[in-house]
Amino acid sequence: MESEHWRSRHEEGRGMRAAVGDLVRAAAEPGWSRLVARHAQVGAHTRTTVLRDGHEITTDDLAEDLATPFRRLRELSHRAGEGTWFTCELAFIPGSRGYTGHVDPHARPFEGVPAEAALTELTLFPRDEPPGWLLDALPTAPPLGLPVSYGGDYERWRRNEPPPPSLPITGELSYLPEATMTARAFEHSWEYGQPTVFLLEKAGDPQAGHLLFSHHRKTFWMSRHGMRGSGEGLRTVTLDGRTLRLELSPRTADTLETEAVFEIHLDLAEETVGELRTALSAVLRAVTPAPDLTGL
Question: Cα 17 to the chain's mean position, in Å?
């Protein structure tokens, strides 16, 4: 979860939510149909609840592990003058890297907010109009908020661009990673000793969605149109008729914004599928370590 792996608040925020999902999945017994993680926080005072199909499975160790990604999400979501959220709920289902949920920056997250928690909250996350329940919890007058810029490194990286927006602090959350694409064109190039395979959703359109495979010497690279690429985490590749199936590590799937199993439907002529098999095999067999290949 180190910050150097992220390019924007949006990307790091999605990474933190994915980390929450990985932690609650690891803690749940198999056979569940829905996992819900709810985190409430004021200052340093937190309450975390994890439900497996409606039954609580929270442990002290799990709550402690979840505190780090949720704390970072609060920081990344901070808005000048508006503070950040007090409650975040995320729901996960089997077989998907996606999630739904919501955040709330207004409602009281729990009863009995400690005075020191209210004081810390308005110091670290100042807001122009604190809710009444937060003011009532203060032991003194509202403190002067500290000048903060959580995620400020991202603004410095984008010197000639407007700063990226903060994460949502109110409303619904949803992330629905892609599970499939349809390839209607195939291209293969070889420049500077670097073979590259392109699968495109629309022939002749460089702006259309695509999937790229390449390698240089023994190093592999894969990317999707508009997404950050990855040089690791491709576990297996299977060509079954006109379906190309990729099995990815969870981290690589999140980088590419796909599910861990991603299928490409090949709307290609039979001879073109044969050319793809040859070209893709040449790219993937040359890397170290090579993914498991079936049908190539």
Answer: 6
Closest by Cα among 68, 64, 58 to 27? 58
Within 10 angstroms of residue 124's Cβ, the number of other Cβ atoms is: 19
For the stretch 101-155, pLDDT in tens is 999 999 999 999 999 999 999 999 999 999 999 999 998 766 766 667 676 666 6
Residue 49, classed as helix, strand or coil, is: strand
pTM: 0.84
Both tokens of 79, joined, read: 């808005």
Share of the chain above pLDDT 70, in %: 90
Using alpha carbons, select from 5, 77, 72, 22 the residue that is nearest to residue 228. Answer: 5
Q: Using CA of residue 115, residue 116, residue 121, residue 127, what is the dihedral sign?
A: positive
Compute the half-sphere exposure of residue 263: CA atoms within 13 Å on the CB side of its CA: 8
Q: Which residues contact 240 (CB under 8 A, 6 or more apart)?
A: 294, 295
Contact 153, 63 (CB under 8 A): no
What is d(CA 131, CA 118) in angstroms, rounded to the nearest whole number? 11
Tell me the C-alpha distance between 262 and 138, whole Å: 51
- How many Cα atoms are found within 13 Å in the side-chain-facing hemisphere of 267? 10
